[in-house]
């Protein structure tokens, strides 16, 4: 109870201090610094050394103690400096399916000085470490497990540095305002008959929806079995790989993936639909998606696939 | 001078209906001494736009229809043996005009394409060892069909970079199309159109563009944009320094058209889709396109201030 | 689970370990070197994947064997020597089982502590300078533990460590000078005696001759004002009153002299003495001395003693009044002690009786005795023949060759036999003048013995029979006195003191000695009194309040200075316009209009004006002003922008927290 309230307050305070943004530059308002356990152990060692200096009346022991104490102080400035001025930018994230790891891309940019051993991540997962050269940048990919479909909003990211001695840790919590779309987990299964009008046709081998000779549809990657005559040699010579000119035959009836025609609970149905969206897309087959509340007309191509997957991912959520 | 510019824009807009933004961009492109690439389906008014611009600005106009059997000589000109004088005389090709419309440039072979593009870049033509300067001013408006149409030779990236802007006219809006259908023939209107600018005035305007102030802060913004294209993973490659320079010049021209003596980030943003769209490719998409999505990303994500 | 140790860190750790152990080797048993080599070799093999980490059994065996080794060679596991040996053994053994970063860190911390123990054993200037090396290497190992770009490069890592150290120096100096020095909190085992040679509680004549061969430094004295001539420099250490026929020894349990038992008289000499450890309690001083050293006392024979044996270099200040009359009256016990004689030596007694008969006044008798030494065939030598039986007789009448102790002992015997209270005083005489440093350096070979005899009313009088035999010993030093014999420091052929006639070498030696003196006085001797003295000289008075002000204020000042130098805040990216604009943005964000990153000032203002139509004029006014200032290249004053912002602030309703931005940004 108290804990939650405390967390809430802490979050609000952080939001005021480090408002969410796509790019955050660390400055003194945003950097916190404290000794690490190593630093505490170091101070215990210093205390022992001081005691030796006092009890043996040994000036050199005093001297070394003070020197190391000053080093501690200098290290504090160095640690702080190592983090300050660092620019952290969200560099995008590709949508994933439930059960996969979303890989958030981060870009660390230097605005003049070197930033050594910068660690980023979401605790308790281990942080990723990168060095940022002067005026340069470093790219980091930080995985986050996607366990629920829909928008997965990344939490505040911990950015820390223990350089140079590991005695102190300077850190910040930045919110890069990043979110990733998590598609339902594709689960193979059969489509019920009602939805299989198009598939039956394919089985009969009469009309192949999605492939034909009528209309140039675009290019797609070569698959064994494709006709050589349709190879796009020009594209190949440009180094774009083996592509096949795809000509679509306009199907008499469109294939519809219909949510309401399926059984099972909502998630299972979405998973099945997701599987079929992927499968049909791979077959270059035109299909439409019918969800309660939204309807995507039959089409093919990457854009259509993304639109369908997005609709599935956001099904039932407010921002759909 | 400013009023004349407005009058020019108005005149062009009377002929080319419902395309005011594109007209303004095209004008900015010409003022920034850049060449223009118009990508559209046939019949969208590409030729009309070019022709109108030439008329209004008082430029001599030539049209080269690119076909697969077009030879470089057809563009640049050839030397012909003159029986009377017993000498070779040079017959200048259509490129020796102040505004050249290179229609359907992607129908011609790369060899012919590059003849035009080299002339564009260097401002002169070298034929049989003799170098002949092109007229001043010299604009090329090239048009091409969408790349996916068959029987075309897509311009390679290096050639695309030589066009300052790429525009797409698109279908006219309902009202504009109605006016088009109701109104008189465009050709008749064109023939009646008087030049509104003299060569001297055009040169002055181009100089004015160069004098438009671009502050440090603004140049930093342009640099941020360019750097983003070079460092972000989704870009297959970054913008060239020539593109950066072109972007700044186009933004200057845009600012002049908006009657301002200095450039603001909004000017850069206004010309960015036209300037950068044809130069960018999405890494994940090998077949081209994706440029406009990337430009949108740039507009959204690169800090403007 | 901490990650593995980077290679560079391991390399620096091995280097640092070697550097840390090196000065310890002299104080550690021989087998330790073997243990170290064994462990280092094992570690290297582990690194080269040719050996495995020790298992539990091997570890236990190693630990037990090492502990047994320490117990066997140090006679126990307690005490500084044994403790150091154990620490070093741990330091070496840990190397083998070092697996994770935490282990490496333990090793580094042990290393720092081992450096401190090296200071306890040896705090010479060179050793201290040397210790910078292991400390730097240890820091480099620490830097190397960080998973940074540096973890691949050895030299930059070292450079970084050096940079850290250099940048830490100012604060370290501040702390060193001002941090209050406390007395020992509890007593700890002290470094054991290393057989320091020097004066002893008792002496046979040969003892001092042995000291005469040693070039070891004993103490240094700096005079405030002119240094007296060397013939006046009789540094008293102890008095030897009891004679058993062979050996002179001091009276045990002498009473302490009350501070008011004598009055200062005549001119005084002020000087400070920096004494090397002697493991004895007595202090050195000229007659008649008082010191401000806490706990030091003066015994009834006018010598000074410390509370405890001097085990660390000791600095104390002394004032001496040479003209003070000491003991105008002698108590019977004192008289008895000063006249005590064992049986034997008939010829010496005979000589005494003869002299007594001839000279009524003791001064005359003493003068006659000195004349005898001067005129007779007496020789001053470091190599006297061995005497047996009645040693005084044998010396006085047969061998006639001896060192100062022979002459002092014989003279005292004769005086006592003649009924004059007398005693032998042992100490040092003269010393080497270091003109550069303005101090007197006294070596062991300056050890000397002389005689004091007592006169009623005039008290104790000093007389030096050696002066009668070899005046050059007193006026120029031992070397001159032994010039013919050539025996000066013949056992120490490498001692630079032997080459004093090579001018350059001698100058170098004196300069080096001077440097060491400064080191001992100002660094090693910088303890409570020295610190208080210095601070009082600088600040007049010195109290806790001032300490807090100077230490705290100085620390903060230095910290700020360092921060400024390191962080260079003047290189801030945001200029004044941008700062004002950020305030503008924050203000509007609180009212629900946050700027998108890609949004320019004009677009943002337009959008904000739509959301806040009542303040549209002010918002657009500000944006226009900003635009002109930022992009038009027209110089205008910054105040104008701030003014526009204030106008907008006034126009907006007051709101503290951020309104939720209605739109989603994605």
Automatic annotation (TrEMBL), chain A:
Cited PANTHER family: SLR1927 PROTEIN, SLR1927 PROTEIN-RELATED
Annotated TM spans: 31-54, 60-80
Record's keyword terms, sorted: Membrane, Transmembrane, Transmembrane helix
UniProt source species: Pseudomonas fluvialis
Source organism, top-level taxon: Bacteria
Protein name: Uncharacterized protein (DUF58 family)
UniProtKB/TrEMBL annotation, chain B:
Keyword ATP-binding: yes
Gene Ontology MF, one: ATP binding
Family, similarity comment: Belongs to the MoxR family.
Key words, A-Z: ATP-binding, Hydrolase, Nucleotide-binding
Annotated EC: 3.6.3.-
Domain ATPase AAA-3: 35-165
Gene3D superfamilies listed in its UniProt record: Magnesium chelatase subunit I, C-Terminal domain, P-loop containing nucleotide triphosphate hydrolases
Domain ChlI/MoxR AAA lid: 228-288
Protein name in the entry: MoxR-like ATPase
Transmembrane segments: none
PANTHER family in the cross-refs: METHANOL DEHYDROGENASE REGULATOR (PTHR42759:SF5), MOXR FAMILY PROTEIN (PTHR42759)
InterPro entries: ATPase_AAA-3, CbbQ/NirQ/NorQ/GpvN, ChlI/MoxR_AAA_lid, P-loop_NTPase
A UniProt-annotated Pfam family: AAA_lid_2
From TrEMBL, chain C:
Transmembrane found in the keyword field: yes
InterPro entries: Bact_TGase-like (IPR052901), Papain-like_cys_pep_sf (IPR038765), TgpA-like_C (IPR025403), TgpA_N (IPR021878), Transglutaminase-like (IPR002931)
Superkingdom field: Bacteria
Gene Ontology biological process: proteolysis
Spans through the membrane: 56-72, 78-96, 103-121, 127-145, 157-179, 547-567
Keyword annotations: Hydrolase, Membrane, Protease, Transmembrane, Transmembrane helix
GO molecular function: peptidase activity
Organism: Pseudomonas fluvialis
Keyword match Hydrolase: yes
Name of the protein: Transglutaminase-like putative cysteine protease
Domain Transglutaminase-like, residue spans: 396-467
């Amino acid at each position: 109870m108290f804990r939650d309230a405390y967390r809430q307050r802490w979050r609000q305070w952080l939001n005021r201090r480090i408002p969410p943004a796509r790019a955050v530059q660390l400055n003194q308002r945003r950097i916190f610094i404290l000794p690490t356990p190593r630093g505490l152990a170091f101070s215990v060692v210093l205390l022992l050394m001081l005691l030796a200096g006092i009890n043996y009346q040994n000036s050199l022991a005093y001297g070394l103690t003070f020197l190391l104490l000053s080093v501690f102080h200098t290290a504090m400035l160095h640690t702080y400096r190592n983090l300050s001025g660092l620019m952290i930018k969200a560099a995008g994230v590709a949508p994933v399916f439930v059960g996969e790891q979303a890989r958030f891309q981060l870009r660390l940019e230097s605005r003049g000085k070197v930033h050594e051993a910068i660690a980023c991540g979401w605790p308790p997962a281990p942080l990723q470490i990168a060095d940022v050269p002067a005026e340069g940048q470093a790219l980091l990919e930080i995985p986050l497990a996607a366990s629920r479909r829909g928008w997965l909003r990344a939490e505040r990211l911990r950015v820390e540095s223990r350089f140079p001695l590991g005695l102190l840790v300077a850190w910040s919590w930045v919110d890069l305002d990043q979110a990733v779309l998590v598609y339902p987990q594709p689960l193979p299964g059969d489509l019920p008959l009602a939805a299989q009008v198009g598939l039956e046709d394919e089985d009969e081998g009469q009309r192949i929806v999605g492939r034909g000779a009528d209309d140039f549809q675009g290019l797609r990657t070569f698959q064994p079995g494709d006709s050589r005559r349709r190879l796009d040699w020009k594209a190949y010579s440009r180094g774009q790989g083996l592509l096949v000119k795809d000509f679509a035959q306009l199907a008499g009836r469109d294939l519809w993936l219909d949510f309401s025609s399926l059984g099972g609970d909502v998630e299972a149905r979405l998973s099945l639909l997701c599987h079929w969206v992927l499968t049909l897309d791979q077959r270059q087959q035109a299909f439409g998606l019918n969800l309660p509340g939204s309807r995507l007309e039959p089409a093919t191509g990457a854009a259509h696939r993304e639109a369908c997957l997005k609709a599935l991912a956001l099904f039932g959520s407010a921002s759909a | 001078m400013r009023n004349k510019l407005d009058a020019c824009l108005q005149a062009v807009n009377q002929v080319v209906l419902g395309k005011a933004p594109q007209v303004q961009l095209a004008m900015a492109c010409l003022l920034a001494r850049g060449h223009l690439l118009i990508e559209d389906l046939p019949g969208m008014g590409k030729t009309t736009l070019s022709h109108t611009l030439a008329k209004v600005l008082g430029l001599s106009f030539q049209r080269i229809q690119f076909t697969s059997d077009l030879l470089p000589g057809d563009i640049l000109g050839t030397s012909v043996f003159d029986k009377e004088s017993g000498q070779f005389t040079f017959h200048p090709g259509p490129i020796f005009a102040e505004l050249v419309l290179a229609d359907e440039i992607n129908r011609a072979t790369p060899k012919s394409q590059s003849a035009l593009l080299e002339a564009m870049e260097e401002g002169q033509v070298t034929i049989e060892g003799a170098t002949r300067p092109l007229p001043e001013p010299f604009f090329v408006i090239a048009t091409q069909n969408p790349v996916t149409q068959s029987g075309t030779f897509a311009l390679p990236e290096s050639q695309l970079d030589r066009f300052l802007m790429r525009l797409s006219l698109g279908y006219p809006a309902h009202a504009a199309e109605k006016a088009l259908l109701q109104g008189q023939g465009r050709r008749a209107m064109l023939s009646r159109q008087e030049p509104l600018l003299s060569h001297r005035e055009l040169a002055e305007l181009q100089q004015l563009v160069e004098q438009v102030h671009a502050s440090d802060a603004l140049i930093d913004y342009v640099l941020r944009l360019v750097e983003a294209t070079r460092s972000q993973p989704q870009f297959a490659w970054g913008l060239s320094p020539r593109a950066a320079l072109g972007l700044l010049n186009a933004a200057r021209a845009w600012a002049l058209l908006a009657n301002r003596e200095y450039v603001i980030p909004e000017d850069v943003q206004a010309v960015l889709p036209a300037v950068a769209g044809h130069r960018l490719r999405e890494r994940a998409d090998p077949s081209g396109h994706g440029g406009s999505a990337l430009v949108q990303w740039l507009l959204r994500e690169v800090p403007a201030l | 689970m901490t990650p593995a140790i980077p290679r560079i860190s391991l390399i620096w750790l091995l280097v640092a370990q070697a550097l840390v152990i090196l000065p310890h080797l002299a104080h550690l048993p021989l087998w330790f070197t073997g243990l170290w080599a064994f462990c280092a070799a094992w570690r290297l093999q582990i690194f080269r994947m040719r050996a495995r980490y020790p298992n539990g059994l091997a570890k236990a065996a190693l630990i037990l064997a090492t502990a047994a080794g320490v117990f066997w060679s140090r006679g126990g596991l307690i005490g500084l020597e044994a403790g150091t040996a154990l620490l070093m053994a741990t330091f070496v053994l840990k190397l083998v089982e070092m697996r994770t970063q935490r282990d490496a860190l333990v090793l580094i911390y042990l290393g720092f502590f081992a450096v401190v123990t090296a200071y306890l054993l040896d705090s010479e200037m060179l050793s201290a300078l040397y210790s910078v090396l292991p400390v730097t290497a240890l820091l480099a190992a620490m830097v190397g533990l960080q998973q940074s770009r540096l973890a691949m490069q050895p030299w930059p890592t070292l450079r970084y460590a050096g940079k850290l150290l250099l940048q830490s120096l100012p604060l370290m100096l501040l702390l060193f000078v001002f941090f209050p020095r406390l007395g020992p909190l509890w007593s700890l085992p002290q470094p054991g005696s290393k057989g320091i040679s020097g004066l002893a509680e008792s002496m046979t004549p040969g003892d001092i001759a042995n000291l005469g061969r040693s070039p070891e430094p004993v103490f240094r004295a700096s005079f405030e004002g002119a240094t007296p001539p060397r013939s006046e420099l009789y540094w008293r250490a102890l008095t030897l009153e009891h004679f058993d026929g062979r050996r002179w020894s001091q009276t045990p349990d002498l009473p302490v002299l009350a501070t008011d038992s004598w009055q200062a008289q005549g001119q005084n000499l002020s000087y400070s003495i920096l004494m090397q450890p002697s493991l004895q309690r007595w202090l050195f001083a000229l007659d008649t001395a008082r010191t401000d050293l806490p706990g030091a006392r003066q015994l009834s024979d006018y010598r000074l003693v410390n509370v405890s044996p001097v085990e660390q270099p000791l600095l104390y200040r002394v004032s001496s009044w040479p003209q003070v009359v000491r003991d105008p009256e002698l108590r019977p016990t004192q008289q008895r002690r000063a006249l005590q004689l064992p049986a034997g030596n008939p010829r010496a007694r005979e000589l005494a009786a003869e002299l007594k008969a001839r000279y009524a006044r003791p001064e005359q008798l003493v003068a006659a005795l000195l004349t005898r030494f001067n005129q007779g065939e007496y020789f001053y030598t470091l190599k006297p023949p061995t005497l047996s039986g009645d040693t005084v007789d044998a010396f006085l009448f047969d061998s006639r060759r001896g060192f100062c102790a022979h002459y002092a002992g014989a003279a005292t015997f004769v005086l006592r036999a003649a009924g004059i209270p007398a005693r032998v005083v042992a100490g040092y005489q003269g010393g080497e003048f270091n003109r550069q440093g303005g101090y007197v350096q006294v070596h062991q070979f300056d050890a000397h013995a002389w005689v004091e005899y007592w006169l009623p009313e005039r008290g104790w009088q000093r007389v030096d029979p050696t002066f009668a035999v070899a005046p050059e010993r007193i006026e120029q030093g031992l070397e001159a006195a032994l010039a013919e014999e050539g025996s000066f420091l013949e056992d120490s052929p490498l001692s630079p003191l032997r080459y004093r006639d090579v001018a350059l070498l001698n100058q170098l030696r004196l300069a080096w000695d001077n440097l060491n003196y400064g080191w001992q006085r100002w660094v090693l001797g910088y303890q409570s009194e020295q610190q208080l003295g210095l601070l009082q000289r600088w600040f007049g008075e010195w109290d806790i309040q001032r300490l807090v002000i100077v230490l705290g204020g100085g620390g903060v000042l230095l910290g700020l200075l360092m921060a400024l130098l390191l962080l260079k805040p003047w290189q801030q990216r945001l200029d004044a316009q941008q700062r004002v604009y950020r305030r503008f943005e924050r203000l509007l964000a609180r009212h629900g209009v946050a700027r998108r990153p890609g949004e320019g000032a004009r677009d943002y203002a337009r959008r904000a004006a739509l959301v806040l139509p009542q303040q549209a004029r002010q918002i657009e006014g500000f944006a226009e002003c900003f635009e002109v200032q930022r992009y038009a290249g027209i110089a205008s004053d910054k105040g104008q922008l701030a003014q526009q912002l204030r106008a907008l602030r006034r126009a907006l309703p007051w709101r503290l927290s951020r309104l939720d931005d209605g739109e989603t940004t994605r």
